[in-house]
Amino acid sequence: MYIVTAEEMYGMEYEAINEIGIEGKLLMENAGRAMSDRIERRISRNRSD
Predict the structure, then answer these.
(1) What does the angle CA 32 – CA 12 – CA 24 come to, to the nearest 5 degrees?
(2) Hey, where are the domains in the chain?
(3) Phi and psi (nearest 5°) for 9?
(4) Is residue 39 within 8 Å of residue 32, measured between CB atoms?
(5) What is the C-alpha separation between 13 and 20, in angstroms, rounded?
(6) CA atoms within 13 A on the CB side of 34
């Protein structure tokens, strides 16, 4: 997994919002959902051990 710096993320968000036209709240919603899914998978995997 590639981890971006804060500056790189700012640039990606800027492009998504201002050049592609994605709303900032939609970006945050998707990020929250993605993290929730990862946490849920990790918890489920740990319970099955």
Answers:
(1) 50
(2) 21-49
(3) -65, -40
(4) no
(5) 10
(6) 6
pLDDT grade for 39, boundaries at 50, 70 and 90: very high
Quick check: helix, strand or coil at residue 15? helix
Task: Give the predicted TM-score (pTM) of the model.
Answer: 0.69
| Residue that the structure tokens 């946490």 belong to | 39
**Which pairs count as long-range contacts for 40-44, CB under 8 Å and 24+ apart, including other chains?**
none
Alpha helices, DSSP H, located in 1-49 = 6-14, 24-48
Residue pair 24/17 in contact by the 8 Å Cβ criterion: yes
> In angstroms, what is the C-alpha Rg of the chain?
14
